[in-house]
Structure formats: structure tokens, C-alpha cells
Amino acid sequence: MKQASRHYSAIKDAMARGKKRYTLVKDVDDMETGAYDKPLPCFGCGIGWFSFLLGFMFPFLWYYAAFLYFGNYYRKDPRERAGLAASAITAMGFSLVLLVIFAFRWFYYP
Question: Transmembrane region positions (predicted)?
Fold first, then answer.
């Protein structure tokens, strides 16, 4: 028997034996919901993105989301991390803009 045909027959035997080894663990109808299957709060977009969008009308929501971000709120649900980070970055940018405006008014218009 050639070497290639010997490997082929070994693989074929392993595949035939492997079919009998696997069993169904759970029924398809008995599927449990996972930790992240439930929808996010605030209309399904999460607290972070909701604060980010509403922050353009009420900027203090950015600071609220930044507080949640630095308080590791996203460890409860990792899907919140991106929105909270976006709000924290926006809060930092907004603070920088306010600082520049106040400094400009303080030094140039006494």
C-alpha cells in the first residue's frame, strides 16, 4: 500500500469514528438567553450614546457619562464602553473650549 493511500484510509477511519462521538448537549428549544441578549437601556442605544447625543442640548450629560466611564460602569455591560468613552472625550473637548473662551475673555476684555 502506498504511503498516500495509507494516510487517506487513516483519515477516512477517523472521520467515520468521529461521527459517532458527538452528541447533542442541549435541545434547540431549550436555549437560555445570554447576559448580553437583553436590549440596552435608553431606547436600545445605551446610556453612553444616549448621553452623547443628548449632550449637544444638555452638555452636563457628557460629564455624567464621563463620571460613569471613569467609574468603570462599562464593566457591568461592555457594550456601553464606546458610548461612554465618546461622551468622556466630548466632555473633555467641551471643557477645553470653555477654558479657551473664558481665558480669552479674561485676558483680552478686562
Answer: 47-70, 82-108
